[in-house]
Amino acid sequence: MGRLAQWRRIVRAHPTLADALLAAVLFLLGAAAVLTLDVPWLDAAVVVLLLWFGAAVALSRTDAPTEPAPSLNRLDALVEGLGTGRPVRWTVAGQPRPLPGAVDVAAYRIIEESLTNAQKHAAGAAVAVRLRYDPEGVTIEVRDDGPPRPEAVGMRERAETVGGAFSAGPRPGGGWLVRAELPAPEEEAE
Fold first, then answer.
1. 181-190 pLDDT per residue, tens
2. Over the chain (190 residues), what is each successive 10-residue block's mean pLDDT?
3. Based on the domain organization, do 82 and 150 belong to the same domain?
4. What DSSP designation does 166 have?
5. Residue 84 CB: number of other CB atoms within 10 A?
6. Pair 94, 151 in one domain
């Protein structure tokens, strides 16, 4: 990956970082002008840096995302993509409905990380994903036949960020269970 491509990726992923870098460069250049540094190459450097940062920020603002936004509407593609090499069974209970954006993304990411962890810690083991909609929200369960694994801090934070509850641990009789209950009352759906 070339330097410009790397910069564009970073700028797209962290637009506030790009804005902060641009502000820092402009501040430093302004400070240099105030101090009246008589440096011959400063004028050319200012132009190059301003054009470079300006182009990078502009590209980050005009490029369309290269991937669709995370959503439970794409659960089949997620399971298919991360289920390669092992049996993954998934079921949906209740009436699927639109969820608030943050809940939809959190649910998708929790399932994504659970499947990734199953692939990492329980390679080849059977995995079952269960998604249940009810009037109060959505419940996610991801079960596999793998061994115990480290605490899933990222998934816990995702669930708690949207006001949900999260648990992960060994299943009775063996295997691993991830469970998240995310609030999304029907009247708050987008």
1. 999 998 765 4
2. 62 64 64 59 61 63 66 89 81 94 95 91 89 96 90 91 95 92 80
3. yes
4. E
5. 8
6. yes
Whether the CB-CB separation of 90 and 129 falls below 8 Å is answered with yes
Do residues 78 and 154 share a domain? yes
Residue with tokens 């694994």: 149
Please list the residues that pair with 8 across neighbouring strands.
Answer: none
Rounded to a whole number of angstroms, the distance between the first and last alpha carbons of the chain is 38
- 102 and 17 co-located in one domain: no
Q: How many CB atoms lie within 10 A of CB 152?
A: 21
Q: Is 92 helix (H, G, I), strand (E, B) or coil?
A: strand
For residue 170 the two structure tokens come to 């060994």
d(CA 21, CA 60): 14
Per the confidence metrics, is the pTM higher than 0.70?
no
What is the C-alpha separation between 92 and 75, in angstroms, rounded?
10
- Looking only at Cα atoms, what is the longest distance across the chain? 76
User: Are 176 and 90 in a shared domain?
Assistant: yes
Residue 30's domain comprises 3-62
Whole-angstrom CA distances from 88 to 57, 73, 74, 104, 149 are: 41, 18, 15, 21, 19
Identify the CA nearest to 141 among candidates 127, 154, 152.
Answer: 127
Q: How many CB atoms lie within 10 A of CB 34?
A: 8
